[in-house]
Queue: 2 jobs
Job 1
Amino acid sequence: MRGRAEDPDHGVELLWRGAGAEPRPGLSLARIVRAAVEVADAEGLAGLSMRKVADRLGFTTMSLYRHVPGRDQLVDLMRDAVMAEQPLTPPAAAAPVPGAWRATLEVCARASWELRRRHPWLAEVRGSRHLPGPNGVAHYEHMLSAVRHTGLTPAEMIAAVGLVGRFLDAEALLLVETARQERESGVSEEEWWGSRDSLFERLDRYPTLTYLWEAGGYDHPEDSFEFGLARILDGIELLIQKRDETRDGICQICGKPVETPASGRPRKYCSHACRQRAYRQRGPA
Amino acid sequence: MRGRAEDPDHGVELLWRGAGAEPRPGLSLARIVRAAVEVADAEGLAGLSMRKVADRLGFTTMSLYRHVPGRDQLVDLMRDAVMAEQPLTPPAAAAPVPGAWRATLEVCARASWELRRRHPWLAEVRGSRHLPGPNGVAHYEHMLSAVRHTGLTPAEMIAAVGLVGRFLDAEALLLVETARQERESGVSEEEWWGSRDSLFERLDRYPTLTYLWEAGGYDHPEDSFEFGLARILDGIELLIQKRDETRDGICQICGKPVETPASGRPRKYCSHACRQRAYRQRGPA
DNA sequence: CCTTTGCTGTTTACGACGTACACGTAGTAC
DNA sequence: GTACTACGTGTACGTCGTAAACAGCAAAGG
């Protein structure tokens, strides 16, 4: 183990090997990861230190380094460990249902959201060099497969899933940070802002701000997770529709070719029946 | 100054008082903030320390505490200082142009994006208790005013602007983090991932992932900022349209009442002329 | 003149952090 | 017995934010 911190493949190995059977006493990777998750759950990722993990287990700090190369790799292991908690919805049917992508992606997003509520520090993990473990990749694969048969280009699928993921982290970070500040300062959010009267006195000069304030926009806010998720999925849906429509000369419903009129707007459907079917498929506005 | 770290209003005062004329030698708030911005520009927010700022100015660490209550408040001051660099586009015309909200919001977003490219650490500022300064509030007010006359509810306006803002930070964080890791490790992103072959060997089991990989989705990715901004603005636009349409019985163009037919879909426009005008206003698909 | 007051910058110190390095100690293979 | 290895420990270094006491100096008041 000593000197392995620089070995790139060692981190991969730790993440991807199955949990070896080890009911023996003493330290073990699984025990360390579990203890670390407990610490991070309670005190956030910034409050996670090797010393605290070791103390919780009753060992010295440096003993951890016999099992984990360092703090960063420990966080990678924690991530993948808690992702195992969230079961994946079964893979989409072999014959993809049109429009099912949205429900699947939404379920995924809500599951991830739930996970971030249980382990808020997940959103605090930053940096572009965190190795994905098997559970992380499985989740990623699952989200990608949701948008696979939508007419999006490969790069667009990747971008769409990435956008949803980053949105999740951004929203979760909001909650984590308020919780952290309340925990560490002992002062609630309202109290803290309330004791800054001298700030609010200066905000009268801003017309829209005061309008929204007086209209109660800040008293009855939208749920920012729900709002953002809806907007982003709507935006993706619009893109998918646009990609669909660019399949010119093909009926949007049955896929048969459509004769294009010499002038005017090109037709989307091959028959009245298909147009009506599309109308019903769109559902009530 | 000593012991003022606990005075809530002192932070507000520092942020909102105009820059007093102080061409004298020695330390000053403005000089400290300027030096701190330089350090953070070069080394990121994590690399910003009171010692480094003091060294750069040729003073001792503790001398800074005569002018700034602490590191957090210094960051607040830095934020507002760099926001002064970005000039605001002039306020929207008194008679709001329908549909102009999108262009305005997009210009705002791109300006903020540009600012984050110049000062990447802006995206690293976390926490829900950062005092806004005059420049920050001006930007916020400006974005809010962009969506003011769109038919959105107050809470929806706030949520929409917040969503765009958080998106900006999330995307910028992506760039900051890769830059930081490359700077601190001296290893480029490709090199780093390239030396993890043992990871990629395990990714064959994931069909969608390998499909996207082989289709070149990762070789020619979408610009994630452009992609995300377009999707989010599309999503907001859809909501605005929906809010518009719920103004039943009122012509979407001229605002005059529309007679509702006894059966069938309620009409959106009061006349052929208005319908045609709406068609042209939508522009080419 | 001297003294008081207040602002400014300095010095030292504390407790946290990640982890490098040298050292034990115990179990196992030869 | 004797190497070898895995595991756990103790000490130490350099980083961080900042609390507390102290020193120099200018203006103000007597």
Job 2
Amino acid sequence: MEYLEMESYLKAIGDHNRMLILKYLTAESLCICEFTELMDMTQPAISQHMRKLKQAELVTEEKRGRWTIWSLNIRHSLYPMLIHLLSLLPEPERTVETLIAEGKKVICE
Amino acid sequence: MEYLEMESYLKAIGDHNRMLILKYLTAESLCICEFTELMDMTQPAISQHMRKLKQAELVTEEKRGRWTIWSLNIRHSLYPMLIHLLSLLPEPERTVETLIAEGKKVICE
DNA sequence: TGAACTTATAAGTGAACACTTATATAATGT
DNA sequence: ACATTATATAAGTGTTCACTTATAAGTTCA
């Protein structure tokens, strides 16, 4: 891997909000509107973070109806390292279970 | 490890010139003036990169006479991951052997 | 068709970044 | 003391970054 490619990769991960997004994605795939509920961020902010993560090939997207469902790109060569790195971070306060309890979990179909 | 701490760490690594500095340091400790010979960067630029790396506790410094000798901080909890990450990067074109051949290797004593 | 909903994009803003040149600080050797 | 050497810091600059608000684009369903 070249230096500039590694730089792009590390810069994509190296933001606390994107790390939190990635942490959520280790548990399950989610859509933008769920992130906005989980993370106290505006929808455009989330969208722009997803674009960054996508450009670095850290995540993949799947359009389903009006939703875009985001997943970790398990095919990336540095995926195992990413998982290890994320395992060192604490679980977020708001979880997908919180969403379910509040009736805000979206079934995208 | 907290999210903001991980962010500082990744941001410190996430620059191609600092990755090159770290790559050099995996082989041996070096002083600023050697980096300026190896890397086609000005001395203040190198100094400022070292300060960043030091703040993130990726490197340690040892003053010896007029030189400051920099080393990887092998005590950092993420040191093994750093080594793995750097192992994925190609060896630099200019090496310490090049310096020796040119008579520019400094013996700091 | 049109309203509601989800997401993406555009434009603007203040802060951080990676450099530059100039200068200060500190140790060495004559 | 003075010149040389090695490094650190200061100030300035153009670029990138992470947001904001506003709006556009696309889907669903009445």
